[in-house]
Design brief:
The complex is a heterodimer of chains A (about 210) and B (about 600). With about 210 residues, chain A is mostly helical. Chain A contains eight helices and three strands. Chain A is globular, with a radius of gyration of 21 Å. Chain B is of the alpha+beta class. The chains are: A mainly alpha (about 210), B alpha+beta (about 600). Chains A and B meet through α4 and α5 of A and α4 and α9 of B.
């Protein structure tokens, strides 16, 4: 579904030299399939579970506050109980003692549910290859998006969220109660962002030198 | 540790200054023939070895008596060392395990250590949890990590690792890496078993299920709860809404930092220190690098000291702002945190432009800092110095002067200075009781003696006072930062000492000896001479100390991290009894802890 916004003055006034009626309709009426509309709504209203483990949670909280303002993407409604949330951000190190708790919380999230693994520890154990740390939350949970960094900047989490939204926007769900399976119809996976943006990143030549601000 | 100066008389006997010396003399007289050895370390803290049959009497004697007018008020630390693989132990009694008690005198400004030799076949010694309240958790931790039993301890359960854990993690035979162990798996059956093991059982803690006229309710808070500030769990016993008792449960954030210290080189351990008090950033590097510098005998240039102080104080403000916002949020004010995070972003901008990272720059080095300050570094700091004071005033009117906040926090969770000592409380929590003691003033490190600043204190030691002290500390930090910017000395950002890591490169291409040394120092890391050292600082949450044992190797033999939050959390039940659940939330918020600082 494609749409854009224009200033009210511009869009409501009939334009000179065109078919006024056509233009008016184009600016005010949106034609869309119901399926697309639902997908659009779902992707823009992901409610995260209020869950944090360590350092990354501080950067996650920063993403909720004024400067970064996660509310712009409709994902600011933090829920205190997993039963009301759509998404869990594994923000921080997954400890052996904490793992069963994380698993139980994940199990309590209602379908459809998504997991963002935030930071090196949750991705792979990171710098903590140590007896008390699970080497990546994907050892016992399915992960949708991995956000790298130690800790990732709030912007990185925002990007992770946008990637997840993109993915959710392409999913189709049954629109009404049906007797059979309530499965999700997945489109073919797109190329991952790393592949798409790789050449562009490699081509970057202007890097700030560290000896000045 | 500066205070306990030590000199050798003609007789070859070691003399410490002031109360520490008086204490050592007293113990030698009182326990004639029981003193096994007197160990000399580079930090000049008297270290006396006693047999386990005598240790409790010795500790009690230190606790009860006053020496040259001052007492050893606090059990600062209690830990153990697995000595079985250690090579350099000159002058120490033989032992396979050593338990170490570190006492601190605030009034006399000195320290003393007592050590007890133990053998693997018989790892038992008497508890001191009846002498100091805070010994309870320290002893449980030693049991958990080393398998050393404390006779008479009321509940000697595992503290940090899960109850189902096998082995004791800080023993040398326990694997360090997760990848050396069985691959981790977690199916539904295992989850249930683990959850069952974590279940809170009131009878284990000697709790009654009902009183004469009512039945108690047991409420589990955490380990994931919005107002427990991380992975922390507390089980509370309630009579209606009145809190009868509580049992904090920690270990959900144990990252094995101490074990990590035994595996990383002296240099590559620095980033791990950042993540101990993860709100303190580079301030965490400071006690560690200073401890290593002390062992290596490195003097850092003045410029390094001032840069370190400046960045540490910025992180102090950052951490206090987060505390301030979450404290207000936990008692019901939802907006302040949104303002305060804007200020944090401002400071992070500065940190990032200097260090290249936000929360965990890991920017201090053994003998210096990672690089020189970038051109134009003062500009943003001066902007901050202009901007912040007015904002802090605004926050005062928004938070501290708010009537509801006052009623929610004044008179709640208060304790006296004596209680603070008994529980090992340091930092703002101690100063809020009216006791003026700040490491930066009493035992200046990194050049703090050259700065003008005040030590804010309060009177009542309640939640409100703890907050008020921290707010004033931010103003003092701004003062310190201003003096840093105004008087930044010119010079090197790295010492020229050969153990500085990474070493200076200038001469490495000019002669082969320097090149070889440089190569070894960069690849293996520096080799630190065998000794032991304690070094502590006034961190954001209280006194953060490192106790390092070097065995003359490229890694530490034992890294002990004494964190303030560990001691502070233990006090929660003692100060919350009789209050309501909502007060408990205010108390938890007012302590200002992070779980990484508790569990390490």
């Amino acid at each position: 579904m494609k749409w854009s916004l224009e200033s009210a003055e511009k869009s409501s006034a009939p334009q000179r030299g065109g078919n006024d009626a056509d233009e008016f309709i184009r600016n005010n009426v949106m034609m869309v399939t119901l399926e697309d509309m639902v997908a659009w709504g779902r992707k823009n209203s992901i409610w995260p579970f209020n869950f944090g483990l360590s350092c990354c949670y501080v950067e996650m909280a920063t993403a909720f506050t004024s400067r970064h303002d996660l509310a712009r993407f409709g994902a600011e409604v933090i829920r205190g109980t997993p039963r009301q949330a759509d998404m869990i951000v594994i923000a921080g190190t997954v400890f052996r003692k904490m793992a069963p708790v994380v698993k139980q919380l994940y199990d309590q999230l209602l379908e459809p549910k998504w997991v963002i693994s935030m930071g090196s520890c949750a991705n792979s154990g990171g710098m903590y290859d140590i007896y008390s740390v699970v080497q990546g939350v994907d050892k016992f949970l399915p992960v949708d998006v991995y956000v790298s960094g130690c800790p990732p900047r709030p912007e990185a989490l925002l990007q992770g969220l946008l990637l997840l939204q993109e993915q959710i926007g392409k999913q189709r769900r049954p629109l009404s109660w049906v007797i059979n399976e309530q499965g999700i119809i997945q489109r073919e996976k797109d190329e991952v962002q790393r592949v798409v943006r790789g050449p562009e990143r490699i081509a970057a030549t202007e890097l700030r030198s560290p000896d000045e601000i | 540790m500066l205070a306990a100066e030590q000199s050798k008389e003609d007789t070859g006997r070691v003399v410490y200054s002031g109360p520490a010396n008086a204490a050592v003399e007293f113990l030698k007289k009182e326990f004639v023939g029981d003193l096994l050895a007197e160990q000399a370390n580079c930090d000049r803290i008297p270290t006396l070895w006693f047999d386990r049959a005598k240790v409790k009497a010795v500790l009690n004697c230190l606790r009860e008596n006053s020496f040259a007018g001052s007492r050893f008020e606090m059990l600062f630390d209690l830990t153990a060392i697995d000595e079985r693989a250690r090579v350099h132990r000159d002058g120490q009694p033989s032992s396979e395990f050593t338990v170490m008690y570190h006492l601190m005198s605030f009034s006399g400004n000195c320290d003393i250590r007592v050590k007890v030799p133990l053998f693997d076949a018989d790892l038992v010694l008497p508890t001191v949890s009846d002498l100091w309240s805070n010994a309870n958790w320290y002893e449980r931790e030693v049991w958990d990590m080393f398998g050393i039993r404390f006779d008479g301890h009321p509940n000697l359960y595992r503290l940090v690792l899960p109850p189902t854990w096998e082995g004791h993690a800080l023993r040398k035979e326990h694997p360090a890496r997760a990848t050396e162990m069985e691959p981790f798996s977690l199916n539904d059956v295992q989850t249930d078993a683990e959850q069952e093991a974590l279940k809170f059982k009131p009878e284990e803690w000697g709790m009654q299920k009902k009183s004469e006229d009512s039945e108690f309710m047991f409420l589990n808070l955490g380990p994931n709860h919005p107002s427990v500030h991380g992975a922390f769990r507390i089980a509370v016993q309630l009579d209606g809404e009145i809190l009868v008792d509580a049992v904090p449960d920690i270990g959900y954030h144990h990252r094995g930092a101490e074990k990590m210290g035994e595996r990383q080189s002296w240099h590559t351990f620095i980033p791990y220190t950042d993540r101990i008090d993860y709100l303190g950033g580079v301030m965490n590097n400071l006690p560690y690098v200073m401890a290593v510098e002390k062992m290596a005998g490195i003097q850092v240039p003045e410029r390094v000291k001032v840069i370190r102080v400046m960045l540490s104080e910025m992180f102090r403000i950052c951490s206090h702002l987060l505390f301030y916002g979450t404290f207000a949020q936990d008692v019901g004010q939802l907006s302040p945190i949104f303002y305060m995070f804007v200020e944090r972003e401002r400071i992070f901008n500065i940190i990032e432009s200097i260090c290249g990272a936000r929360m965990h720059p890991g920017w201090f080095r053994i003998g210096g800092v990672a690089q020189d300050l970038p051109a134009g570094w003062e500009k943003r700091i001066r902007e901050l110095l202009d901007f912040m004071p007015a904002r802090l005033d605004e926050y005062d009117s928004m938070v501290l002067n708010n009537g509801i906040l006052k009623r929610r926090t004044q008179g709640i969770g208060s304790y006296t200075t004596e209680e603070a000592f008994d529980w090992g409380i340091t930092g703002a929590g101690l100063r809020a009781t009216g006791y003026e003691w700040d490491y930066r003033k009493q035992r200046p490190y990194s050049g703090y003696e050259n700065f003008e600043f005040d030590i804010p204190i309060a009177e009542n030691g309640d939640c409100y006072d703890r907050c008020a002290v921290r707010v004033e500390e931010m103003r003092q930090s701004l003062r310190i930062i201003k003096q840093c910017v105004d008087n930044m000395p010119a010079g090197d950002y790295k010492s020229s000492h050969p153990l500085t890591t990474p070493p200076r490169k200038e001469k490495s291409m000019k002669d082969i000896e320097t090149l070889i040394n440089h190569f070894l120092s960069v690849s293996w890391g520096p080799v630190i001479p065998p000794t032991e050292v304690s070094m502590a600082i006034e961190a954001t949450k209280g006194i953060n100390g490192y106790y390092l044992v070097s065995d003359g190797n490229t890694t530490s033999y034992r890294t002990r991290i004494r964190t303030p939050s560990f001691a502070h959390l233990q006090m929660i039940p003692a100060i919350s009894r009789g209050f309501m659940v909502s007060d408990l939330i205010a108390i938890i918020a007012s302590i200002d802890f992070v779980m990484a600082d508790v569990d390490r």
